[in-house]
Amino acid sequence: MQARFAFPDLWNEMSRVHDELSRLFGRVTGNGLRVMAPAGPSVNVWDDEHNVYAQADLPGIDASKLEVFVTDGDTLTIQGERVPLVPQNAIWHRQERAFGQFMRQVSLPALVDPDKVEAKYEHGVLYLTMPKSEAAKPRRIAVKA
Amino acid sequence: MSEQALQKRETTQLTRPTETSQDVTLTPRVDIVETDEELLLYVDLPGVLPQDVDIRFEQGELTLCGRRTPQTKGRPWLWEYEAGGFHRVFRVTEQIAADKITAEMKDGVMTVHLPKVEAAKPRRIAIKAG
Question: Which ranges in A1-145 belong to alpha helices (H)?
Answer without folding.
Answer: 2-25
